[in-house]
Structures are given as C-alpha cells and as structure tokens.
Amino acid sequence: QGTEDTVKKTVGGHPVVVYSKTWCSFSSEVKYLLKSVGVEPFVVELDQLGPQGQDLQKALEKLTGQSTVPNVFIGGKHIGGCTDTVKLHQEGTLEPLLVEAGAK
Amino acid sequence: QGTEDTVKKTVGGHPVVVYSKTWCSFSSEVKYLLKSVGVEPFVVELDQLGPQGQDLQKALEKLTGQSTVPNVFIGGKHIGGCTDTVKLHQEGTLEPLLVEAGAK
Ligand SMILES: N[C@@H](CCC(=O)N[C@@H](CS)C(=O)NCC(=O)O)C(=O)O
Ligand SMILES: N[C@@H](CCC(=O)N[C@@H](CS)C(=O)NCC(=O)O)C(=O)O
Ligand code: FES
Q1: Alpha-carbon gap, residue A72 to B82, rounded angstroms
Q2: Do B24 and B51 form a contact (C-beta atoms < 8 A)?
Q3: What pLDDT band is residue A76 in, cutting at 50, 70 and 90?
Q4: HSE (side-chain half, CA atoms, 13 Å) at A32
Q5: CA-CA distance, B6 to B44, in Å (whole number)?
Q6: With the CA atoms of A58, A19, A103 and A38 taken in that order, what torsion angle do they form, in degrees rounded to the nearest 10?
Q7: Glutaredoxin domain spans which residues (chains A, B) (predicted)?
Q8: For residue B101, how far is its CA from the centre of ligand 1 (angstroms)?
Q9: Closest chain B residue to A70 measured between Cα atoms?
C-alpha cells in the first residue's frame, strides 16, 4: 500500500530513522541518545503530520508489529523502541550497528 | 476557578495522586515505581476524560507551573514529574515522604 511504500523508502534512504512524537519523552530520550553517540537521525514527527501521521503509524505496525513510538530503524532494519535502543547501547552493540549502517 | 478547586480537593484527599495519560511511558514508569514501593496512587488519566482532561491539565499548570504529565503529588504537595520522582527515590527520600503522607 502507498503508505507502507513511503515507510520503506524512508528507512531505506537514511542510515538512522526515528518515527517520533514531539511531546513524548521516550521519543526525546532515543533521539538524544543517538545524537550523544554522534549520529543525526532522520526524524519523522508523527504528531505534526495530521492524518498522514496516523496512516504512517498504522503502516509501521503492519511492517514491524510495533504500534508505539518511538520506532527506530538502523541501516533499514527495524530496531525497536526506546527501551530496545537503550539496551543495545548498554550492551555495547548500538555503535557497531551505527558504524555498519554508515551513520558514523 | 472550579477546576483548580477540583485539583485541590483531589490532592488533599489522597496521600498520593498521579495525573497521567494512559499511552505515556513516563506516566507508566512513575505509577509502576510507586507500586513497587508498596503504594497505590490515586490516578487521574487525563486522556480518558475528554475536554475535562484538558481543563485539568491547564489547572495543574496554573497551580504547579508544570504543564506536563505525569504530575505527582504526595501528601498534598507537588512533587514534579517522572524524572523528579525517580531522583527522589535514588536519593532515598521518596519512601520517607510516602510514610510521612500516610501512604504506607
Ligand atoms: N517500551 C516501549 C514503549 C513504547 C510506548 O508505549 N510508547 C507510547 C508513547 S511513550 C505510545 O506509542 N503510545 C501510543 C501512541 O502514542 O500512539 C519503548 O521503549 O519504546
Ligand atoms: N521531565 C519530565 C518530562 C515530562 C514530559 O515532557 N511529559 C510529556 C509526556 S512524556 C508531556 O506532558 N507532553 C505534553 C502532553 O502530553 O500534554 C518528567 O520527567 O515528567
Ligand atoms: S508520551 Fe510520555 S513517554 Fe511517551
């Protein structure tokens, strides 16, 4: 469907993509974490896109099984949410993923 | 104003009150923290109250200066948000406050 294609193009076209909401502290946390390791994510603020934001969130759920924000992709691969990304960082595997994706 | 009185009655009438939103992970985190130290907070889910939820959130901002959720009160006193409450717990001062308020 059109919106799913949009998502695939986006996550394929940027090393790091975060689907986010501007008012959400978990979204802020993951964006801040990525910047703190020297990466500038491509951010899609779903709450600022009107009805298209809801379509994107539904498409993301179809594609990844995840209905929540933040929704993080690295190198086109679905990583998960805030907790998942923080866990990878605590395990030391986040930065290697980012290097491999050409994000840093 | 009427809504500010409602807030004052609520926070005066329960040892622990959390103004929350059901979809918000920071709200979930603070509710879970309080339960983990043996306290059952009185929870007001602002997103489930329709327009009254927005009135309450505005009243809380007038009364506390805090426009965000979660908004935590212990013993009728404004404590802050999720980060503030977690910090008190890390400093060891959360549980004494709860005991003093008669919450546990
Ligand atoms: N454990 C997940 C929690 C994700 C979550 O519950 N996100 C909330 C916002 S904090 C959400 O998407 N709620 C529904 C919505 O905003 O549409 C994570 O770490 O990302
Ligand atoms: N540092 C604050 C952050 C509070 C915050 O930014 N809350 C967000 C939700 S996570 C909020 O209220 N956004 C505006 C809204 O939902 O009306 C805390 O720890 O509670
Ligand atoms: S909306 Fe509060 S943490 Fe996401």
Answers
A1: 23
A2: no
A3: very high
A4: 7
A5: 12
A6: -160
A7: 16-79
A8: 32
A9: B25
- A33-52 tens-digit pLDDT: 999 999 999 999 999 999 99
Q: Is A68:A91 a contact under the CB 8 Å cutoff? A: no
Q: Which tokens belong to B89? A: 């717990």
pLDDT tens, residue by residue, B14-67: 999 999 999 999 999 999 999 999 999 999 999 999 999 999 999 999 999 999
At B98 the three-state DSSP class reads: helix
Residue with tokens 């993951």: A30
| DSSP 8-state code for residue B102 | T
Taking the C-alpha atoms of B74, B76, B82 and B88 in order, what is their torsion angle to the nearest 10 degrees? -50
**Which residue puts its alpha carbon closest to atom 4 of ligand 1?**
A68
